[in-house]
## 1
Amino acid sequence: MIIGPEILAMLQPKAQKYQQAAVAFERLTMEDVILALAHVEEEGPRLLGRVKYAQQEVFLTPLMNLYWPEAYDVAKRKKWRVDPDKLRTLAFFTLYEYIKPPRCKQCKGRGSMRQRLFAVKGKKTDPNDPLVCPRCKGSTYEPLRDADYARSLRMDESSWNKNNWRGKQREIRSVLDGWEIACLSEMFDFINPEDDA
Ligand SMILES: [Zn+2]
């Protein structure tokens, strides 16, 4: 089974950091991805990869159980005075958004589009050159809005803003960024072992 375009679209934006990675991923089958994931040493990065890239949703609960204490640690370190239930809900939605980013409606999750589908006024371009999607700026997805998060935390948007919940959300999301980078870099090392010669 070749990995589907949706998973490729998720892998590739992060993969740009690793030069040949995007090319390497095009050749991968889902079996390759699963095999590479099995060689990711740390549990957090491995579980994140399994749920996100191999769609093994059975690992979602263990992943959340691992992620939630990390988010709680961030809150403790930063001395946030917040309701732990709200923090847990924030962690859950942050994780969920991270794993299943809502696809950008304009480019349908491709990150780019054909020029002719999106005319740029007064610009001479090859109509077949792909253009970075103006809506998601190539990220392929649309982040949940403040209003979405506020609703999930059962608060109105003004208290979400006033207590800088967005800032808190970014802080706890960075744990997942760290895990994802660790996961991808170990996968790449496995897929493209470096020549030590
Ligand atoms: Zn887009």
## 2
Amino acid sequence: MKYLCSNCKMFRYDEDKGDKETGLLPGTKVENIPHSWKCPVCGVSKSYLEPLHKKISKELSTKDLTYYRDIAREMLTGLCGVYPVCDGDPDHTCTGQKYGAPIGLGGAGQAKTFEANYKALQQYRLKMRVIKTHHEPEMSLSFLGNDLSIPVMGAPLSGVKSSLKDAIPEDDFYWGLLKGAQSSGTLGMVGNTPSSPEDLGVKVIGKNLGWGIPFFKPQSQERLIKLFEVAEKLDVIATGVDLDGAGSTYWVTSDKSVYRKSEAEIQELVDCTKKPVIFKGIMNSEDALKVLDSGGSACYVSNHGGRVLDSGQGVAEVLPDISKEISGKIPILADGAVRTGFDVLKVLALGADVALIGRPLARMSIAGGEKAVKMYFDYVKDDLRRAMILTGCDSLPDAKMSIMDKLGHPY
Ligand SMILES: Cc1cc2nc3c(=O)[nH]c(=O)nc-3n(C[C@H](O)[C@H](O)[C@H](O)COP(=O)(O)O)c2cc1C
């Protein structure tokens, strides 16, 4: 039988193979491991070893988020501990310097920006307000002319081979993200990766009759304009460029150059297509105003989940300033450590129109495809509803700064 250390979520013990490092011979059953034995990763006793398949063998009817999280933990062993809170904690499996190795689900450098996203958002607390006539919260919205059930979308993701242990085929990964979001009444997005054809994501959206948004890395204008043409033909909802992808080392080391873009270049991208264009990776109000001036249809506030620039600011630190400049002019999207419906409400109160989720959906898509992704959206939706009821919000415009207070500096 195989076991996983439930404390560090990193050490796996296979009774058939034993563990050379701690002197356990092949065939040593867990009940025969001496009580003095310690996990070689985190130092806890053998009582922390839990059968890997305990939950995975649950009946079909009992499939829940825990079920899919357990599968993801097994599929991503050594890369992601699928911890109770995905917060860029320096002690987590995904974080720490990688010295040139792929970053998996972690962040660039020491993953301080990943951690900053979490900490910056958690310094806001929701104020409870319950004496008010009850109304069912209105969570739906129109985004670029499309009706969505919730102000939450799936962030663009890609790179199963480079970041997710090649767990499933890249196109299946995209399909799970897109269909799961759609089944929950909202939109999914896909990215692009140098290890697959650059138009793979947009083609999967085409298979989904255009319901989805492809994001392309900021490659040469010539290449981007061609990809925009493909996207337009496949009738996608909108097309995006993750401008902060200019810092993607994976693209550069794969010999596919990525670049910073000038104002004239983003203008050219907007003008080359009839589809709405979204620019991602915006982290200050000057850049946000440039997006607005270029005719961009939405501004996506993000630092790529801390995966490109380390020692950077958390999204919640910059979002209010950006919102002050462009709110009501074009939709503002924002991501970065959004994990729950409570987090969604805070991101809206900070000035976003839509909050987006990255890492949790990546885990769901590899572990259970559409069903698991939908389950995550539904979980977020339930908590958003509850958060709105308990903070006195009847509709999305009620989510304002005044529903929160702010702790001192979190670092
Ligand atoms: C495994 C992985 C792959 C990603 N791939 C892309 C991508 O191809 N294009 C892109 O714009 N962003 C990509 N991102 C960044 C996400 O869109 C998003 O900005 C980030 O994950 C949000 O932070 P969160 O994961 O803490 O929710 C990726 C993120 C992860 C974790």
